[in-house]
């Protein structure tokens, strides 16, 4: 199950500490950010996380138009 992203304030503090040459690992631990996530924040240089991926169009099996025509065919011929 996906976890909620860390707050932008905590991410900004870790990034600020890294840029200033401070102990960003200690700061990340204090804010409840794992060291792996903190390294990702530092490496990317982003305060805001990237948006999560959405449903790809290749994953959608039937379009709404197709479903509508199938339902009308079903109602006309199979009832």
What does this 3D model show about the protein?
There is one protein chain. The protein has 79 residues and is mainly α. The chain has a domain at 1-49. The chain has 4 helices and no strands. The longest helix is centred in the C-terminal third of the chain and has 14 residues, at 64-77. The radius of gyration is 23 Å and the shape is rod-shaped.
Class by SSE composition: mainly alpha
Structural shape: rod-shaped
The gyration radius over C-alpha positions equals 23 Å
Number of strands: 0
- Please report the number of helical segments: 4
Attribute tags:
single chain; 79 residues; mainly alpha; 56% helix; 0% strand; rod-shaped
Offer a concise description of the structure:
The chain has 79 residues and is mostly helical. The protein has four helices and no strands.
List the helices and strands and how they pair.
Layout (H helix, E strand, L loop, with lengths): L7 H13 L3 H7 L4 H10 L19 H14 L2
Helix pairs in contact: 1-2
């Amino acid at each position: 199950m996906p976890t909620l992203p860390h707050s932008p304030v905590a991410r900004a503090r870790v990034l600020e500490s890294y840029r200033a040459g401070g102990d960003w690992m200690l700061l990340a631990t204090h804010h409840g950010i794992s060291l792996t996530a903190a390294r990702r924040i530092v490496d990317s240089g982003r305060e805001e996380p990237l948006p999560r991926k959405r449903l790809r169009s290749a994953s959608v099996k039937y379009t709404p138009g197709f479903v509508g025509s199938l339902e009308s065919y079903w109602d006309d011929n199979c009832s």
